């Protein structure tokens, strides 16, 4: 069904798709290549939300796409959303074949785009480089298929497994390269979740800082968009003037019933969450973030929230930066897990290990 040319063109479309990773959310970032007689005549990447889908960009570049084959990393849409249906645009342009890497998991599309194309007499093949395409948009797929985005926790520790001194002092454990890496993680996230304890201890901003991103224009553009900062603040204790309330990014304070609202918090976006056995209901938080269309969720918190997320089965990945330093203190473990026997130990699968500057980065998934 697929030729070597097909594979080469889909690989190119995947490259184009990845270019949208800092900008397209809440849309999935998609790539499209139009090919006629073996030559590329148009290329496109999903534009920031409300903007053109990848197919429309590629058709605009081609001008005349009659007789072309379209390679797309996601099934062309069939619905009228913020933009018109791409399937209809491809039909109108006279494309003769569409090769898609995967079906759109969005229930509003879900095969509807492919059948619309087939009904119009276009040859349609789906499934080329599917697992690669799924790896490009894990957050969107997770939100569509299970109703909650992909959740990763970022943690930094010393060689002896400490995340802060007993005093709470923690800046900086890792070096500049690891911190730049974290900036890229933030830039690719829709929401960054933390606890009020971290806000009080670190006065963190949790924004994307353009000057710390690498020099590529892609990374620089990412700085324009700021993820939603989410603070688990059950009693609404975030102080006036906290960096987390700065005007350069949106903030959502999640509290429990009966929290008194200080006047300085009145203009801040807030949501009430139910209480579960061990604190705020984290699963309800994830559903709330799904209704806000968050595909990629990053938890940047202390050991307690990260431990609670892991124990609630809500973490898809842990990203742990380990600095070759010794902090010595016996306080502040990487994650707070109330375990007391070896039989209870939490096993993780190592997805990736690499050196980032002078530090090591481990990507781990709960088994
Ligand atoms: C495509 N090509 O490049 C993308 C698609 O609200 P809208 O109109 O922007 O539609 C968003 C939905 O379209 C999104 O949830 C997903 O199902 C699909 N994304 N489809 O044909 C694209 N990004
Ligand atoms: Zn579309």
UniProtKB/TrEMBL annotation:
SUPFAM superfamilies according to UniProt: Cytidine deaminase-like (SSF53927), Dihydrofolate reductase-like (SSF53597)
Keywords (A to Z) from UniProt: Hydrolase, Metal-binding, Multifunctional enzyme, NADP, Oxidoreductase, Riboflavin biosynthesis, Zinc
Active site: 55
Pfam hit, one: RibD_C
Top-level division of the source organism's lineage: Bacteria
Keyword Hydrolase: yes
Gene3D superfamilies from the UniProt entry: Cytidine Deaminase, domain 2, Dihydrofolate Reductase, subunit A
Cofactor info, note text: Binds 1 zinc ion.
Residues binding Zn(2+): 53, 77, 86
Positions of the CMP/dCMP-type deaminase domain: 4-125
Chain positions recorded as NADP(+) binding sites: 156, 172, 198, 202, 234, 302-308
Binding locations of substrate: 170, 186, 206, 209, 300
E.C. numbers: 3.5.4.26, 1.1.1.193
Pathway(s) this gene product operates in, as recorded in its UniProt entry: Cofactor biosynthesis; riboflavin biosynthesis; 5-amino-6-(D-ribitylamino)uracil from GTP: step 3/4; Cofactor biosynthesis; riboflavin biosynthesis; 5-amino-6-(D-ribitylamino)uracil from GTP: step 2/4
Keyword Metal-binding: yes
Cofactor: Zn(2+)
Family: In the N-terminal section; belongs to the cytidine and deoxycytidylate deaminase family. In the C-terminal section; belongs to the HTP reductase family.
The protein's role, per its UniProt record: Converts 2,5-diamino-6-(ribosylamino)-4(3h)-pyrimidinone 5'-phosphate into 5-amino-6-(ribosylamino)-2,4(1h,3h)-pyrimidinedione 5'-phosphate.
PANTHER family assigned to the protein according to its UniProt record, in alphabetical order: 2,5-DIAMINO-6-RIBOSYLAMINO-4(3H)-PYRIMIDINONE 5'-PHOSPHATE REDUCTASE, DIHYDROFOLATE REDUCTASE FAMILY PROTEIN (AFU_ORTHOLOGUE AFUA_8G06820)
NCBIfam families: eubact_ribD, ribD_Cterm
The protein's name: Riboflavin biosynthesis protein RibD
């Amino acid at each position: 069904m697929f030729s070597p040319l097909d594979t080469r063109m889909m690989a190119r479309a995947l490259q184009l798709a990845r270019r949208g990773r800092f900008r397209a959310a809440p849309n999935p970032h998609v790539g499209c290549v139009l090919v006629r007689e073996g030559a590329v005549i148009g290329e496109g990447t999903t534009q920031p939300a409300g903007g053109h889908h990848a197919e429309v960009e590629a058709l605009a570049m081609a001008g005349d796409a009659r007789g072309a084959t379209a390679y797309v990393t996601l099934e062309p849409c069939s619905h009228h959303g913020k933009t018109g249906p791409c399937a209809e645009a491809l039909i109108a342009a006279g494309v003769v074949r569409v090769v898609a890497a995967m079906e759109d998991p969005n229930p509003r599309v879900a095969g509807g785009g492919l059948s619309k194309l087939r009904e119009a007499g276009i040859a349609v093949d789906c499934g080329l480089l599917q697992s690669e395409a799924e790896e490009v948009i894990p957050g969107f797929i997770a939100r569509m298929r299970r109703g909650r985005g992909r959740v990763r926790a970022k943690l930094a520790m010393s060689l002896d497994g400490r995340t802060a001194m007993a005093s709470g002092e923690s800046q900086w454990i890792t070096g500049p390269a690891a911190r730049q890496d974290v900036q890229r993680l933030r830039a690719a996230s829709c929401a960054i979740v933390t606890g009020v304890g971290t806000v009080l201890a670190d006065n963190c901003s949790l924004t994307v800082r353009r000057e710390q991103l690498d020099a590529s224009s892609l990374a620089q553009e990412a700085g324009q968009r700021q993820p939603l900062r989410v603070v688990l603040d059950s009693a609404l204790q975030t102080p006036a003037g906290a960096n987390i309330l700065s005007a350069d990014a949106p903030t959502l304070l999640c509290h429990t019933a009966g929290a008194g609202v200080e006047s300085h918090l009145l203009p801040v976006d807030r949501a009430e969450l139910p209480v579960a056995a061990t604190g705020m209901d984290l699963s309800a938080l994830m559903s709330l973030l799904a209704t806000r269309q968050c595909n990629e969720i990053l938890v940047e918190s202390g050991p307690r929230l990260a431990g609670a997320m892991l124990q609630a089965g809500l973490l898809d990945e842990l990203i742990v930066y380990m600095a070759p330093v010794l902090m010595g203190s016996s306080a502040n473990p990487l994650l707070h897990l109330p375990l007391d026997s070896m039989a209870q130990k939490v096993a993780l699968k190592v997805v990736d290990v690499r050196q980032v500057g002078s530090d090591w980065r481990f990507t781990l998934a709960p088994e």
